[in-house]
Amino acid sequence: MFKRILLASDGSEASRHAAHMAVGLARAHAANLTAVFVVDPYPYLGLGQTNPLGFPGYMAQAHDHAAQVHAEIEALCRAQAPGLNLQLRLVEDVAPADGIVQTAKTEGADLIVIGSHGRSGLARLMLGSVANKVVAQSLVPVLVTR
């Protein structure tokens, strides 16, 4: 049924659960799996040197975190689905939901798997939800896991 599955991962517990689901689905459907990590845009534009990390430090830390998340997904695939065709993608300088949806289009994904942090009430209204935005923008089915 599914040939190309896109896993959106940020290293959170919710995205780890989504990774298990995505790997299981990819194994069951003999599908290709692409794991995408989207680096949030630099939050301090316009503040210049007031941030002690600065842009290079922010990006270095983001790349390190992405590498850790991708390594976890690779290990999961080796353990639960040896031989699975896994591609790793890093997307920068775009809002997470936009990066996920765009990567799904670019990769020709026919399913997106994403974890939900389960926010509700005021937090959901104030912060929004990447998963909700992906569901709203995606042209392909989205499996949201908790």
Description:
With 146 residues, the chain is α/β, with parallel strands linked by helices. The chain has one domain (4-145): 3-Layer(aba) Sandwich (Rossmann fold), CATH 3.40.50.620. 49% of the residues lie in helices and 18% in strands. Strands 3-2-1-4-5 form a 5-stranded parallel beta sheet, with helices on both faces. Helix 1 packs across helix 2 and helix 3 (96-107) crosses helix 5. The longest helix is centred in the middle third of the chain and has 27 residues, at 54-80. It is globular, with a radius of gyration of 16 Å.
What descriptive keywords fit this protein?
globular; 5 helices; Rossmann fold; 146 residues; alpha/beta
In CATH, what is the class? Alpha Beta
User: What gap, in angstroms, lies between the N and C termini?
Assistant: 23 Å
- Give the topology string: H per helix, E per strand: EHEHEHEHHE
Give the overall shape, derived from the CA principal axes.
Answer: globular
CATH topology: Rossmann fold
Query: The biggest beta sheet, please?
Result: 5 strands, parallel
Question: How is the secondary structure organized here?
Answer:
Elements: E1 4-8, H1 13-29, E2 32-38, H2 54-80, E3 86-91, H3 96-107, E4 111-115, H4 121-127, H5 130-137, E5 142-145
Parallel strand pairs: 1-2, 1-4, 2-3, 4-5
Helix pairs in contact: 1-2, 3-5
